[in-house]
Amino acid sequence: MATMARRTKQARREDATTVDFTIITGLAGAGRSEAAKCLEDLGYFVVDNLPPVFIGKMAELVASAGKPLRIAVVADARGGVFFDELWKGLGELKELRVPYRILFLEASDGDLLNRFAATRRRHPLAPADRVIEGIRKERLMMESLKGDADLIIDTSGMTPHELRERVSVLFAKSSPESMLQVSLVSFGYKHGLPRDADLVFDVRFLPNPHWVDRLRPLPGTDQRVRTYVKEQRGYDEFMRRLRAFLDATVPGYVREGKSYLTIGVGCTGGRHRSVVVADELAEYFRSRGHPVAVAHRDLERG
User: Which segments of the chain belong to CATH 3.40.50.300?
Assistant: First the structure.
């Protein structure tokens, strides 16, 4: 009898590898519900606010069906017990050999305040309707979980459509066991750094096409701007050293099991130099077989 029980448990572990688990979490107002809707459209079975303690049991039940299934669980924090239950649930997923990823959504305090004001919702952790206090409390509470996240998306300045597009690109054909997926974000320093970037490269040392009258109105995607930037002294050497740096570090990320890598490339306004470099880096990663998503965050801002 005991032997049969052990075999059943082992079979469940083998079947569990057909399950793809995503935990959607992050700050209230940062877009968890929108991300969940997008994953549902991609064919995920989405469960909202499942107590984390039941994550392992759910994976075990689903695995018994014996067919591949993609599951997304939306989880938020309401107290310290949440984290103990979550770590226990994730531990059970590891024991069952279920691949999983943690998607963490965040946004700036200003964006979160505006969203709560627009919807007239109360922040779940806000004392006496002081939304900013709730935001600060939740941000502090979630900091350790953010540190363990596989993918962080900063939704500051994003519309719901832009968030859904970002999630679609990252999750459409991916699984937690797939190769490293790269997101490249060009941006302007005057508009702020992307908060979700793992690496940031500053290309403001290159001459700025903004000061060339014929190039100022053109975007960095225009061939004339691309040619100007690439012909500048120091560009080729910079790109050579940057590719060498990535050749040395990216394999390490892969060995350590990192599924996502977000790289920010910044110039002053985010319209010219950063766009050119981000697009060239996209070609570098594609040539090495990595799935790549490119977002020119400030291209239209000027």
Answer: 2-178
Amino acid at 193: L
Model pLDDT for residues 194-253, shown as the tens digit of each residue? 988 999 999 999 999 999 999 999 999 999 999 999 999 999 999 999 999 999 999 998
Q: Does the pLDDT value for residue 136 go beyond 60?
A: yes
Q: Which residues contact 257 (CB under 8 A, 6 or more apart)?
A: none
As a CATH number, domain 2-178 is 3.40.50.300
92: helix, strand or coil: helix
Alpha-carbon distance values, 231 to 89, 152, 209, 238, 285 (Å): 54, 35, 12, 12, 22
Indicate the pTM of the whole model.
0.70
Residues 6 or more apart whose Cβ sits within 8 Å of residue 226 = 220, 276, 279
- Angstrom CA distances, 7 to 58, 143, 215, 294, stand at 20, 40, 69, 46
Whole-number Å distance between alpha carbons of 61 and 108: 38
